[in-house]
Write a structure and sequence with these properties.
Shape: elongated
Structural class: alpha+beta
Strand content: 15-25%
Radius of gyration: 41 Å
Oligomer: single chain
Keywords: Cytoplasm, Endoplasmic reticulum, Endosome, Membrane, Microsome
Distance between the termini: 148 Å
Helix content: 25-40%
Mean pLDDT: 77
Number of strands: 37
Subunit structure: Component of the biogenesis of lysosome-related organelles complex-2 (or BLOC2) composed of HPS3, HPS5 and HPS6. Interacts with HPS5 and HPS3. Interacts with biogenesis of lysosome-related organelles complex-1 (BLOC1). Interacts with AP-3 complex.
Protein name: Hermansky-Pudlak syndrome 6 protein homolog
Pfam family, one: HPS6
Main location: membrane
Length: about 800
Amino acid sequence: MKRMGTLRLLSDLSHFSGAGRLRELLAGDPAVRVRCSPDGRHLLLLRPPGSPSPQLLVAVRGPGAELERAWPAGHPSPLDAFFLPWPARPALVLVWESGLTEVWGAGVGPGWRLLRSTELCPGGGARVVAVAASRGRLVWCEERQEGAEGWQGPPAAFSHCVCFRTLEPSGEAGTNLGRTHILLHHCPSFGLLASRKDLFLVPTATTWPGVSHILLIWSPGKGKVMVAAPCLGLSHSQSLNPGRGDTWDFRTLLRGLPGLLSPMKPLTVHTWAPTPQGLLLLDFRGTVSLVQSHGGTRAVGTLQEAPAGLAGSAALGTFHGTLACVLGSTLELLDMGSGQLLERKVLSTDRVHLLAPPAPGMEDEEELETRGGLRLLSALGLFRVGWEAPQGLEVPSAEDLVFEEACEYYQRRSLRGTQLTPEELRHNSTFRAPQALASILQGHVSPSTLLTTLRAELRDYRALDQLKAHLVAGDDEEAGWTELAEHEVARLLRTELVGDQLAQLNMVFQALPTAAWGAILRALQLQPDGNGRLRSHAPPDVWKKVLGGTSAAKEPPNGILPVFELLCQCLCRLEPRWLPPFVELAQQQGGPGWGAGGPGLPLYRRALAVLGEEGTRSEALELELLLGSGRPKAVLQAVGQLVQKEQWERALEAGLALGHSSPLLRSEIFKLLLAEFARHRRLDAHLPLLCRLCPPDLAPAELLLLLRTHLPDESEPQTPFPEPGTEPPLTVGLLRTLLEQTGAQGRPSGPVLSLYEDILWDPGTPPPTPPRGPMTTLQASDHPGLEAWAPPGQGLCMTDTG
């Protein structure tokens, strides 16, 4: 039986805020531009410049406030407006011809509010002629003042360039705008049309005729641009990845493709329409063609009537292998494969707009129930066009569909030679998932309620299936893989990371470590603080999942690492210098039975285990982990290694970094280094740092006893000067600085506690000289005992003190 195309009323627009103004604009202005938000709840109507107010209206279905703006005469209205595919909140961007750009958002307060305003052409002298929003990027074509030299054609024909900036949400009420990247220099005026994967650069009425038969297709996910000439059936691919600094001069690009410059007539296109399958174009003869992302072009079909010049309205869309074309007040449905006309309907109005389908994973309950068709918007209401099953056809129940779909799913993944049947799935206890879903459906749960409950899980699992499909197909869309891997890591972090979930997380990190680490960065909210350390604002529940793991030094089962070890291993591969700050940050987290305060291995030892066996580890990373652990034994081990390597300054700085909160550990490090100071002279250059490390409560006598313990044994009497090639001994001059440091806290007022206190606190001024008296000559006869050693004929002069 032949299927029937149906046109069903979804809403009479009374559910939309500002319904009266919405109907008025749809019925009164045929040139109004209509766009739909990714979730299908918001409608944007933008009137061309010079139209009566309001020029902009945003209506919302259900609760929410509309946005209505008008610009007085003499003030330009926006060139174009787009909804942004942000899942957290609805947002739209307005772009003016001057380059002024405004980002508006809802859901962050009452009504709509301006989130950000910026200039796309800050230098002035440029004019935006076309703009599009594609996958988190704002792309525009601007006309610049300078002409293009070295090309056979008018200079103004190649005075344009195509640029883009990334546009992403930031926090609850912020936006991040990336820096400007230039895709094409010295190009003609292009129109910009964006699909979910590709950006199409199409010729316009002002494009120079010599190149008006050429269009370009930029695929950001594949990092390439396709130059196509549909009338010639030719296409050529070039690399264009702005992330690697790629950019192209349009003239240089075409000089290398002389076959595309054959004299041809310009493309006579009435309507362009981007679709998931490619770019649809309708010419003035009524022929519809499809330009695919690889540059190939094929005819889809021919309409019963052709457009009536440029003034006639037309809209194109696809659903379920069907092409829908609204031409004036006529709706035609054609088969995309054969081009056969399937159905033709006459509508009651000629002002009909085809709405783009909602983005995958962002549909609400109504959109999920009406999926599989196209939506038509007019002043009469919102309609859905789709196919209806013929009467008399038995539709299987939801329970039967569950087991049939599950049967096909398991059969594709089964290695058994026998065929699975739905009856076997019903009674075999091995297949519990379809039985659980069937039991839910038997409980008379409404589809909308079930979809609302499972929406997040279904979205995550669908993203995972898409990732698997991309990997199996070998599609080189690295950006898509990255995004899906980030979603998968975020989903796993919301589960209990044990068993299969932990194994799956390990697999994602092995396959896509960069994308997986990016998801961890967002989950833990890690940010550098400018001093080489990390800070985190993540809740304790997230850290509990990250730090939980093995409580003993055991080999992981089947090579599956706990989350903390997995992150340490990933950091060792990607950014080894951030491993010690990450471990230090993790040690500051903790809770009963987990984290740094848990009963298991210390985190620094778990991180060291990831680096490998002792002797094979990176010595620099091992030292940083030991020093940052805060454990006395580990810090002393690290200082000992630094002493063995004679890295004196770093060893001293490690002790000074402890501060006065660890006096015992500082004292142990000082004694270790003092022993080296007593044995050799290689620490003399760092004596000021050693004095700073000296404990304030150390007495001079204790210092000398410590030095004496480590002084080398002298088997021979010392000489004033060391023998050549021998180590100079410790001198009193070097020792004086340390002795002064031990008394730096002030001389005690009580009795002398040490034999050396008088020396340390000697004021440095000699006693006054006694007064001199008359000189007398001492005769040897007066002192007979002096004759034995006094030289003959000489006396001893003495001062008579009276």
